[in-house]
UniProtKB/TrEMBL annotation:
Gene3D superfamilies: NADP-dependent oxidoreductase domain. This is Aldo/keto reductase. It comes from the Bacteria. Residues 20-293 form the NADP-dependent oxidoreductase domain. The keyword NADP applies.
Length: 306
């Protein structure tokens, strides 16, 4: 059986090269894998061409990076085969962080540097390929973040920087101080705002590649509950029709719809099932006709284009 391999893409002119399907490890703790099972899952992802791992300091209640580190300790050779992404800037109230009195954002220089260094220790790696500010902070001071990024780069701890969930004006502010290679944002057939709020337009203008999270709407596109919203019912119906016409899994069609945007996004898959990763990789080879693409857009919007 021929295996589809995820292609790779440069995230920016001077940015890193990532696989177009990124293995998101937000739910790693809930997968209940042994360290050996985590190693095998990572090896299987590599066999599919998935070479980029997405983490955050807070994932799994501050435990996901540690679980990945346990696997890399068993199989240290994997460190050289993956690109590592992490995020910082949110302080969760957690038994693992008892000093946090209230959940809040923190994009201070001190916190960014400490979070990056903790991520390196937890994952047992020497360098992050990409560090993102997880959410826009109302108290964000662009010069202070730029100083933190510069210190991390000069110390060899982080190679590249970006943001997550930033609006275009917020991105532009920080990018005026320090080069950014991506904006990781939500986009799916149930949440299409990034198509019209300027976010993906900005990525094309700046020639950077966006990273897309929740491209399957948190799995809602694949669920079967009968009390779904009218929007979800419409989208599912069209997805199923196109999937049947093309003999493809529904998830592959839904991801192909996202991947087809001219900003050439990379897409996160957050499943611990190898079959789901394989279906995501398959989406990289699928080109929807404009009619199919807009049938899905219309189903989501609930109206035809003007």
């Amino acid at each position: 059986m021929n295996t589809t391999i995820a292609p790779r893409i440069s995230m920016a002119a001077d940015g890193p090269e990532f696989s177009r399907i990124v293995l998101g490890l937000w739910r790693l703790a809930s997968w209940q894998m042994t360290p050996q099972e985590r190693v095998r899952f990572l090896e299987q992802a590599l066999e599919l061409g998935v070479t980029t791992l997405d983490q955050a300091d807070i994932y799994g209640d501050y435990q996901s990076e540690t679980l990945l580190g346990e696997a890399l300790r068993i199989a240290p050779g994997l460190r050289q085969r993956f690109q590592f992404v992490s995020k910082c800037g949110i302080r969760l109230v957690s038994p693992h962080r008892p000093a946090h009195g209230i959940q809040h954002y923190d994009t201070s220089r001190e916190h960014i540097i400490a979070s990056a260094e903790q991520s390196l220790r937890a994952m047992q790696i020497e360098t992050l390929d990409l560090l993102l500010i997880h959410r826009p902070d109302p108290l964000m001071e662009a010069d202070e973040i730029a100083a933190a990024f510069t210190q991390l780069r000069e110390s060899g701890k982080v190679r590249h920087f970006g943001v997550s969930n930033f609006m275009p004006s917020q991105f532009a502010l920080l990018a005026s101080r320090v080069p950014l290679v991506t904006n990781q944002v939500e986009l799916s057939l149930l949440r299409m705002q990034a198509l019209t709020d300027g976010t993906l337009d900005q990525c094309q203008r700046e020639r950077i590649v966006p990273m897309i999270w929740s491209a399957l709407a948190g799995g809602r596109l694949l669920a079967t509950e009968s009390d779904a919203s009218p929007q979800l019912q419409r989208v599912r119906q069209v997805l199923q029709q196109i999937a049947a016409e093309r003999c493809l899994p529904v998830s592959t069609v839904a991801l192909a719809w996202v991947l087809q945007h001219p900003s050439r996004p990379v897409v996160l898959t957050g499943s611990g099932r190898l079959a789901a990763v394989r279906e995501a990789v398959q989406a990289c080879t699928q080109i929807l006709s404009r009619e199919h693409w807009f049938r899905l857009w219309t189903a989501s919007a609930g109206r035809p284009v003007d």
